[in-house]
From TrEMBL:
It comes from the Eukaryota. PPR repeats lie at residues 99-133, 161-196, 264-298. PANTHER family: PENTACOTRIPEPTIDE-REPEAT REGION OF PRORP DOMAIN-CONTAINING PROTEIN, PENTATRICOPEPTIDE REPEAT-CONTAINING PROTEIN. Keywords: Repeat. SUPFAM superfamilies: TPR-like (SSF48452). The keyword Repeat applies. GO terms for molecular function: RNA binding. InterPro entries: E_motif, PPR_At4g14850-like_plant, PPR_rpt, TPR-like_helical_dom_sf. GO terms for biological process: RNA modification. This is Pentacotripeptide-repeat region of PRORP domain-containing protein. Pfam families: E_motif, PPR, PPR_2.
């Protein structure tokens, strides 16, 4: 189609100034894809993938079966669901509803928007279901927590690739079914039709980490070597996290050191957090200094590990210094978890007034984490009044928290307020809040019991 020689799109983005007399579909599709795949999104973009699509239609450019898949990639969260449905209607209008590429993209879009029902409808309407379509619908049910449905679809798949297995494994780990994940991985290895990749092994290591099973973790590590995989930064970070969680900080440190120059901020942060969890606060702060000296810029997760180390070591001045460096030196805005660490640090040091001051100046509303940290410090200091306030706030935010009711009742009893203590117990009975019994597991001969 011939058009007059004029700028089709704003001068403010040079890549969109098209002077061509004919603008074909390939060019417009490329523009849509480029905008979808931008790594740095501007705060107030001049154009969006949808606005480019609308201009494409305004100029009468022919749409092909690549246009909608690229456009649908821009719809990736529940607030965008209505937009996704509108694009779906355009798919129907332009006659691409039977194209497998478009249908698979629709399944992925509905999955990202949390509408697994619509994703299943699209899948059921497909006359020819290819492997990407099967993978997409399995992933849709995995993300929705419908693991039995996902497994049923997984079993029915005419063929599977590493994406299929990894998606199902990820579902089990994500929803806390780690033993099932180990069983599925064993099945994958026994069938010997599809070989796991680095992503699969990272999921397996996450399962071992959640179980806290060192023997299974060492077995997974051996599988990595047996499969001939290089320990890249992704696998290395997963191994560090797994060994640290399973109690072998020495093995975690060995993996960290063997990464050499491949270490990125994730690997450094994982090692720092691992040392903090093991109470190795001196090593943690030393490693943080080495990280900065090596030219690696820390992120919010790094500082969470550093502040946790300060809590373990009771290092109030160092903690305050690190908390200030976050924003002043590295431009990182503290999140609620960082405030929680600082309040915990002040509380355990007996500085309840400082903890209250920080809590009252937080830019966000305190949650259960914050009140729990304040409660912990107040109990150590014997500040009964602060304990009462914190527990009431915890119950206000989580009315089913049985431990908070029991602790509050005990606080009232300690204060001699027996009527209030009895009232709390009565409230528990009225609301049918029951104390959850404790549960623990132990690893015996590589079996979790």
């Amino acid at each position: 189609m011939k058009i007059s020689t004029r700028k089709l799109i704003s001068l403010r983005h040079p890549s969109l100034n098209l002077w061509h007399r004919t603008v074909d579909c390939f060019t417009w599709n490329t523009l849509i894809r480029a905008y979808v795949q931008r790594t740095h999104q501007p705060s107030s973009p001049t154009h969006t993938p949808l606005s480019i699509f609308l201009r494409m239609r305004f100029h009468g450019v022919h749409i092909d079966y690549y246009t909608f898949p690229f456009l649908l990639q821009s719809v990736h969260s529940p607030p965008h669901l209505q937009l996704g449905r509108s694009i779906h209607s355009q798919v129907l209008v332009f006659g691409f509803s039977s194209d497998p590429f478009v249908q698979t993209s629709l399944i992925s879009m509905y999955t990202a928007c949390g509408d697994v029902g619509s994703a299943r409808e699209v899948f059921d309407e497909m006359s020819q279901r290819d492997l990407p379509a099967w993978n997409s619908i399995v992933n849709a049910n995995v993300k929705a927590g419908l693991l039995s449905v996902a497994r049923e679809l997984f079993v029915k798949m005419p063929s599977r690739n590493v994406v299929s297995w990894s998606s199902m494994l990820d579902g089990y780990v994500r929803w806390g079914k780690c033993e099932e994940a180990l069983e599925l991985f064993n099945q994958m290895m026994k069938e010997n039709e599809v070989m796991p990749n680095e992503y699969t092994m990272a999921i397996l290591l996450a399962a071992c980490e959640q179980l806290g099973s060192l023997e299974h973790g060492k077995w997974a590590h051996a599988c990595v070597y047996k499969l001939g995989m290089e320990i890249n930064v992704v696998l290395g970070t997963s191994l560090i996290e797994m060994y640290a969680k399973c109690g072998s900080i020495v093995r975690a440190r060995l993996v960290f050191e063997n990464l050499g120059s491949k270490k990125d901020v994730r690997a450094w942060s994982a090692m720092i957090s691992g040392l903090a969890k093991h109470g190795r606060w001196e090593d943690c702060l030393c490693l943080f200094s080495n990280m900065v000296d090596s030219g690696v810029t820390p992120d919010d997760i790094t500082f969470l590990g550093v502040l946790s180390a300060c809590v373990h070591g009771g290092l109030v001045s160092q903690g305050k210094d690190m908390f200030e460096r976050m924003s002043k030196e590295f431009g990182i805005s503290p999140k609620i978890q960082h405030y929680g660490c600082m309040i915990d640090l002040y509380g355990k040091a007996g500085l309840i007034d400082e903890a209250w001051d920080l809590l009252n100046t937080m830019p966000m509303k305190p949650d259960g984490l914050i009140w729990g940290a304040l409660l912990s410090g107040a109990r150590i200091c014997g500040d009964i009044e602060t304990c009462e306030i914190a527990l009431n706030k915890i119950i206000e935010q989580d009315p089913t928290n049985s431990a908070a009711y029991v602790l509050l009742s005990n606080v009232y009893a300690k204060m001699g307020r027996w009527k209030d203590a009895g009232d709390i117990r009565n409230v528990m009975e009225t609301k049918k809040v029951h104390k959850v019994p404790g549960r623990s597991s132990i690893e015996i001969n590589a079996n979790i019991q």
